[in-house]
Amino acid sequence: MTDVSDGVLRTLFHSDQGGHEQVVLCQDRKSGLKAVIALHSTALGPALGGTRFYPYASEEEAVADALNLARGMSYKNAMAGLDHGGGKAVIIGDPLRDKTEELLLAYGRFVASLGGRYVTACDVGTYVADMDVVARECRWTTGRSPENGGAGDSSILTAYGVYQGMRASAQHLWGGPSLAGRRVGIAGVGKVGHHLVGHLLAEGAEVVVTDVREDAVRRVLDLHPGVRAVADTDALIRVDGLDVYAPCALGGALDDTTVPVLTASVVCGAANNQLAHPGVEKDLADRGILYAPDYVVNAGGVIQVADELHGFDFDRCKAKAAGIYDTTLAIFARAKTDGIPPAAAADRIAEQRMHEGALARGW
Fold first, then answer.
1. Is residue 197 a known part of a binding site?
2. 192 in a labelled binding site
3. N or C end of the chain: smaller count of CB under 10 Å?
4. pTM of the predicted model, to two decimals?
5. Residue 291 · residue 284 · CB < 8 Å
């Protein structure tokens, strides 16, 4: 973006997220590309995070989202035990209308110009086929198809990691990791949610689902006739006898409206940024609801794409994703010791790891 507005500059230099190492504003007039690449931290290694393609209302909004998402990836990668820092990219536009091969190739050239400081992957609005195109210009691209040296769909291990987080929550709260006989409500049964349904049913859990897309719900019900569906998320969080609530769709699922009426004892889901604002984690704790931090339990996908850089091996990735169980238990233990909510405990552990990584690099 050659013409940077005052609003963009204010967002960059006065963001309450803070601490970012580098922000790159990208523009290619020929293809129409406008993008932001944000690197929050490389203390643990090259920044790793996906590319979001979204019709932002303004450049300021795009920059703010990139900064927020990049910071979140630093924490996620640290807690996943990866040798990667956090980064994120956003492309401004409607992916259904504006996405072209020329634009993706131009974007790949911008990522390549960072020389490996940022490794990209899929996110909202981008898919495996898109990463195959980006990879033609940039070798620091993950989330590619198996035919092009990648691992393909990362939702399988994302769901598996969330399942492990649920097992850890059950162990902490009920004294055993089994979810048999537990009633689990899943909001969003798309790429990740429908895999999660399978894990839960295999263990003997009772599953209730909802999704804004009727076809997504119908696919689950056709495959698993024993699953029950409700009209919407508001109905789901009020289901009697709900043990676990799994937000697996949009962020901000836990707010001042939902938390007071939530019937579940555990919240553990795949959605990013589930806490609508600071303080929600305390509201959950005050109600006795155990919250498994989203960026910890949904890290199976980033574990998978990171493995592509070393020659993808599914069994190796699954074993690492299984470690989300122990990581989640460690967070609950730290929260109890420090007398803080699990979300705050996860942040402390992640920040400690990043600090140690920086010291090891002589920073």
1. no
2. yes
3. C
4. 0.90
5. yes
Element (H, E) at 296: helix 294-297
Please spell the DSSP secondary structure of 163-174, one letter per residue. Answer: HHHHHHHHHHHH
**Are 185 and 348 a contacting pair, CB within 8 Å?**
no
Question: What is the pairing mode between strands 183-187 and 206-210?
Answer: parallel
H/E element, 295: helix 294-297
Q: What is the pLDDT of residues 173-228, one digit of tens each?
A: 999 999 999 999 999 999 899 999 999 999 999 999 999 999 999 999 999 999 99
Q: Is 188 annotated as a binding residue?
A: yes
Annotated ligand binding at 323? The verdict is: no
Does 50 show up as a binding residue in the annotation? no
The candidate with the shortest Cα–Cα distance to 297, out of 274, 278, 276, is 274
CA triplet 220, 223, 227: central angle to 5 degrees?
Answer: 55
pLDDT digits (tens, 9 = 90+) for 279-332: 999 999 999 999 999 999 999 999 999 999 989 999 999 999 999 999 999 999
Strand, coil or helix: what is 101?
Answer: helix
Catalytic residues: 88
Is 191 annotated as a binding-site member? yes
Token output for 60: 């300021």
The secondary structure of 221-265 as a DSSP string is HHH-TT-EE-SSHHHHHT-TT--EEEE-SSS--BSTTTGGG---S
- The structure tokens 């909001």 sit at 187
Pull the structure tokens for residue 141: 């691209």
Q: Do 303 and 228 share a domain, yes or no?
A: yes
Expressed as residue numbers, the domain containing 67 is 6-73+84-148
Largest CA distance in the chain: 60
Q: How much of the chain, in percent, has pLDDT values that exceed 70?
A: 95
- Domain match, 214 and 139 both: no
User: Based on the domain organization, do 64 and 191 belong to the same domain?
Assistant: no
SS3 for 235-246 is HHHCCCCCCEEE
Same domain? For 17 and 117 the reply is: yes
Return mean pLDDT, the chain: 94
